[in-house]
Structures are given as structure tokens and as C-alpha cells.
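2 proteins. here.
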Amino acid sequence: MGFLERLFFKVGLLLIFVAFVVFALRKLGMQPGKLPGDIRISKEGFEFWFPLTTSLLISGLITGGIWLFRLFDRFFK
């Protein structure tokens, strides 16, 4: 396989993985940005929102995606 075909294959697998994770989170009732552990402070005329748990989840997904990308890179070389 050429470089471009391998790249499209890997990107497709990564998108399938991300779609599966988002689908699973929605089925479990978790909405990104409104997870337990996300910090939200609301007062009159002021609102502070820091999605701590969502950030950690996205970081884990990106790390897992890169790991899968490297795994498939070794497997399909």
C-alpha cells in the first residue's frame, strides 16, 4: 500500500474509535462539559467554568488514539 492509502486507513480507524467513544458516553448519560468534576462557579454578573474532567477525558482519548495510530502503523508496515 502507498503512503496515502495507509494514512486514510489510519485516519478512518481513528474516526471510528472516536465515534464509538462518543456514542458510549452518550449512552451512559455523560455529556462532555457537564461531567462530575467539571468546575462551574456562577454568581450574579460572573460565571467561571473549567471543564477539568472533560479535559482529562479528551486527553486520554487523544493519547489512546495516538497509541492506536502507532500500533496500526507497526502492524500495516
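next one coming up
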Amino acid sequence: MFIRHAGATLFGAGLLVCTVLLVTVGPVAAATEVFCPGPRRLVEFAVTGVRAWPPTLTYTDGCNDILLRPSVLWSGVVAVVGLLLAGVGQGLVQRA
């Protein structure tokens, strides 16, 4: 029962912090600003770098490289861990 409540709390806190950070400071920590000739297509977007520690994610839109804010990624990781813990706790409760 404790695992389920702790997971739900972590999920809620991570989601709240992620939302507040996205609204107040935005998701982008750094970006290059290069003119892209012609219209941008969805196929040009690609992940260019993922690091596990510290969690960083960079992607490109075909012309510019964009680095996502680590604090947004950390709060997203906390939300995912909380969701997993809540799922495990719920499974344990239903099994008992």
C-alpha cells in the first residue's frame, strides 16, 4: 500500500514540476538559430543525442540543434518512476 501511495505522490510531484517548468521557463535550454530555406517538414525532425547521466536530450529540426532543459527531463523521469512504483504497488495490492 505504501509503494502505491509513494508512487502516486512521485508521479503527481514530477508532473506538477514538469508542467510548471514548461510554462514558466520553457522546454529549451539552448538552440542554434540558423535560417532554414523552404518549408519545414515533419521528417526533418530527429533526435541527435541522448545521454543517460545527466539526462540530456538534443534534437534537430533539419537546420538547428535544440537542447532540452535538464530540469524538465529530471521531473519527467521522476513522474515515470512514480508511475512505475504506483503500478507495482497496485499489482501487489490486487495480488494480496
